[in-house]
Amino acid sequence: MWEAIMKMPEPDQEVLAKRDYLVRRLKEIVRNPEGVIDRETDLRAFECDGLSAYRQLPMIAVLPETKEEVAEILKFCAREKVNVVPRGAGTGLSGGALPLADGVLLGLGKFNRILEVDYENRCAVCQPGVTNLAITDAVKADGFYYAPDPSSQIACTIGGNIAENSGGVHCLKYGLTTNNVLGVEMVTMEGEIVRLGGKHLDAEGYDLLGILTGSEGLLGVITEVTVRLLRSPEHISAQLIGFPTSEQAGDCVGRIIAEGIIPAGMEMMDRPAIHAAEEFCHAGYPLDVEALLIVELDGPEVEITYLNDRIGEIAKACGATVIRQSRTEEERMTFWAGRKAAFPAVGRISPDYMCMDGTIPRSQLPHVLARMNELSEHYGLRVANVFHAGDGNLHPLILFDANVPGELERCEQFGADILKLCVEVGGVLTGEHGVGIEKRDLMGEMFSEEDLKQQQRLKCAFDPEGRLNPGKVFPVLHRCAELGRMHVHHGQLPFPDIPRF
Hints:
By secondary structure, the chain is of the alpha+beta class.
């Protein structure tokens, strides 16, 4: 039987006993008197992230404004053996920013400035609290943009994007966050400020930047980011393509890619999501189809014209009943308005929903869609599907009512079966939302015990005491000594009084 996944480490009573002392010392570190939050009513703002089914008040929340303050906070917490949970905008959907009852929540919302735009090197340097969309807004007048564009881009921050390796509708052609970040400045749990990468194309040595991207706040706290900027495309066009069944739409996705066509974005919605989005923002979606594809192309106009015709032919061969091409930029943006608003739109048709995130091989899309319909009937819960179809990243929205006894538990079970299905067909547990607590206890479905231990050894290299965001990602967190690894800092072994052989 699936058990509720929100089981966190037991609070350390010794840490809780010295809370007043910790608050006093943190107020000495953070210069802004409002930067340390310890009143229960004020801490409510931080009790969860976008996975709001699970809530936990932090012991203390701290809002530093400089990297030096971040370094001092981490150094102090390490010395006092206090756990730390980094937090961006709180839009994450896997519980990665869920606080700890005995931990300090380190909010980075005040790191909200774009520090430099360097067109010569095609990059921008910004702080982690800058929103995703703000980067594009800052450079679009000069003909540039930042490619990753999660649906929450108006609110989610670049630091959080790095933590979860976020994608978006255009990641099919332009890659995830990891493909668009050139460098970071980060602070270790010991308070050391380090730089990885920079404006140059690639860094020498081990790919530590690649390790950090997607590490969910387990390895360090990011205080500065250098991102890649791209030239705005010469021409952009989008098509709406409707199908009688979701399986036909899934088949069309595979055939388009097999043809060698790589759209800028290729999104899919099923009937419940289509109707919810249309009612929410009136995008002009056809309501007599079971599945809808939005296929966007960018590049030279002559190339787009040819590829649009070819995609239309493929869609007709797959049984498409609606094919509509955008004629103006306004119409193209209207096509996307419904897709971008799909999550809040579904919130209007159900008291609660849980947004899942798994990735599968594109060829398995028809099978997975059919199997999800069967699971929906089995659990008696509706599901609205919104996919980054081009790269196989699924976002099923399971609809439930938390006020009905047992529905949250059934929702958890349903979601777990969807994620297990993703792994069974050769996919993975997450595409861009991260593991957090949502998928933590399913990691064994994808990784062996030795795989997990090896990943934890990597964490030990960055955070030997396991103070950064504990209780996330790993089902059972071993101590570093149990994993056969020992951290040496400045030439000094830990616990020098222990006999060694």
